[in-house]
Each structure stands twice: as structure tokens, then as C-alpha cells.
Amino acid sequence: MSSTGLLCILLSYLAGAIPFGVLLSRGSGIDIRSQGSGNIGATNVARLLGKKMGLITLLFDIAKGFIPIFCTALVVQADPNRTLILALSGAATVLGHMFPVYLRFHGGKGVATALGLFLYLAPWAVALVLLVFLATVRFTGYVSAGSLVGAASMPLWLLVLGGKPWEIALAVFVVLMIWIKHKDNISRLLKGTEKSWKKGSGDDA
Questions:
Q1: CA–CA dist 17, 15 (Å, integer)
Q2: pTM
Q3: What's the maximum distance between 2 C-alpha atoms anywhere in the chain?
Q4: Are the CB atoms for 131 and 47 separated by under 8 Å?
Q5: Is 198 exposed, middle or buried (0-12, 13-18, 19+ CB in 10 A)?
Q6: Residue 150, Cα to own-chain centre: how many angstroms?
Q7: Nearest in space to 176 (alpha carbons), one of 70, 85, 91, 65
Q8: Burial 5-29 (b: 16+ CB within 10 A, else e)
């Protein structure tokens, strides 16, 4: 693999690792890592700092999933290993959010960043995933359930829509990582102790 490809993968990780939730909450006097669910993502930010700040965090986290893969695709368009570089860059971006070097590898759950990644790769699949997410949240009352079910549907939608094999493989990897990061939520859902968005803390995307 070329040095350019390796640099794209590294930069994708570093971009994904930017903890926008933490950065945006500075000045509020609230450490989102020690309150609410302790997660650095948009759901916890919205819970602690209001919906406006949560929405801003969400948009930034989506952007940091979209921009690295977009830039990588432009830079390596003539590279013979383009597909491999894109796949690794995409994975690195999501892993950056989950395990950010800036926060000693204690990060978020990757849902919004993965959304941004696949918004570039497969926007129609993302639209269908969002429908699944919204329907699940409405039916169950849990954002975490919506995130889990929505994420799990991504490889299926890619398969139905004729996605490339490497995109499907990337989606499977990302989904597995999202489910692993949601292990506490899954445990609470199974025990019936997960709290819904309307009831306050505990439920997080």
C-alpha cells in the first residue's frame, strides 16, 4: 500500500477521534463524561445541555464520518489499492470515534459517525436505516434499541440495493463494533432496566 493510502487511513482515524461532544460542552461547567450516561455522543449532550447542543454535536459527528471518506476517495482515486484504502479509512474513522487517542481511547458508540460514513457510500441505504431507527424508537421508546436495530439493518439494505462486497463487509464490521460498544445497553434492555429517552438517563445511542 502506498504512503498516501496509509496517511489517509491515519488522518481518517485522527479526524474520527475528534471528541466534538466534549469540545462543545466546554464552558458549560458540565463534564459530559461524568454525568448522564457518560457518553460523549449527541444523545448525552442533548440530555445534559439541551436539544440544540445535541443537534450540533450530532451534525459534527456525522460530518467527521462523511468528510474523511470523501477526501480519501478524491486522493486515492487512481490508486490500485483504492478499495482497500477506502474500506480501512472508513473503519478507522468509526474506530477513531469509539477509541479516540485524545481521550485515552474512551470514546462514543459510533452511530452518528457511521451514519456519516455511509451517507457518502450509500445514501439510499442510510435513508432506509433512518426509517428503521425511527420506527424502532417509536415502537420501543429506546434510542439505544433504535440504534442497534437500525445499524443491524445496514448490511441487509446494502445487499438489497446492490452494494459492493467491500461496502457490505465494512458495514458488517461497523455494526459488530457498534453492538459491542452497546453491550451495557443490551444488558439493560434484556433485563428490562433500560430507561427510555423520555425518562432520562441510561439510554444512549
A1: 5
A2: 0.90
A3: 52
A4: no
A5: exposed
A6: 12
A7: 91
A8: beebbebbbbbbbbbbbbebbeeee
Instruction: Give the chain as a DSSP string.
Output: --HHHHHHHHHHHHHHT--HHHHHHTTTT--TTTSTT---SHHHHHHHH-HHHHHHHHHHHHHHHHHHHHHHHHHTTT-TTHHHHHHHHHHHHHHHHHS-GGGTT-----HHHHHHHHHHH-HHHHHHHHHHHHHHHHHH--HHHHHHHHHHHHHHHHHHTT--HHHHHHHHHHHHHHHHHTHHHHHHHHHT-PPPGGG-TT---
**Tens place of pLDDT per residue across the chain (205 aa):** 889 999 999 999 999 999 998 998 887 778 888 887 778 888 888 888 888 999 999 999 999 999 999 999 999 999 999 999 999 999 999 999 999 999 999 999 999 999 999 999 999 999 999 999 999 999 988 888 999 999 999 999 999 999 999 999 999 999 999 999 999 989 999 988 887 765 554 566 6
- Cβ–Cβ < 8 Å for 17, 100: yes
Among candidate residues 108, 107, 189, 180, the one with its CA nearest the CA of residue 144 = 189
Cell numbers 488522518: residue: 11
The cell numbers describing 66, all together, are 462523511
Q: What is the C-alpha separation between 3 and 59, in angstroms, rounded?
A: 31
